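SAMPLE LOG
Freezer: B-3
Tube label: C17
Construct: single chain, 231 aa
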Amino acid sequence: MSTDRFDVLDGAISPAENMRLFGHADAEHFLAQSYRSGKGHHAILIEGPAGIGKATLAFRFANHVLTHPDPAQAPDVLADPDPGSIVSRQIASGASHNLLHLTRPVDEKTGKVKSAITVDEVRRAGKFFSQTSGTGNWRIVIVDPADDLNRNAANAILKILEEPPKRSLFLVLTHAPGKLLPTIRSRCLPLQLKPLAPGALRDAMNNLGLDLSGPNAQKCWPRRRAASRRR
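STRUCTURE (predicted):
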């Protein structure tokens, strides 16, 4: 269960469909180990600049959890999702009943994206959690990004975070954690993503079909910034 739009530009891979992630091995290791321990936090605040890979990491971890619903039986690493698996196909198409992607909605009257995540969107999370999962699997909400929550929506999210449903997981993305409500931050486990090292950046761009080596490097930089925007 997901919104049907991702704020990505032409030529970019949407986070839900992206099967590769570069440069965040430490964060992936932390999430895999924390989940396998059975003591993982119910809400994780994934911090970092826009375009660094927060949403891709969130969908990647969601795929891991939904593929391995029993933490004790889960691998201790986040492997690349299998694009042929039912879980991956459902996530990529926005058809997963165990995953809700909260982002700025489209105004039905104007056809334009609204300037904020509204309280009506957050109420969808309440309905989402009230439904019984037919598989008994986890229910995961990705807030992308929490910076876009308006005041009422932020307060509504806070109420859910204060009393999280059983087998629920919040992956809260933020470009600027200092701007979030302190009470939201206090109920989340922070996970900060660092800028990509040159080698990881080169691998990521090569994965998108962009060449950052030789005389073409300067030509690719503007395209790099566009392709990675808000992913």
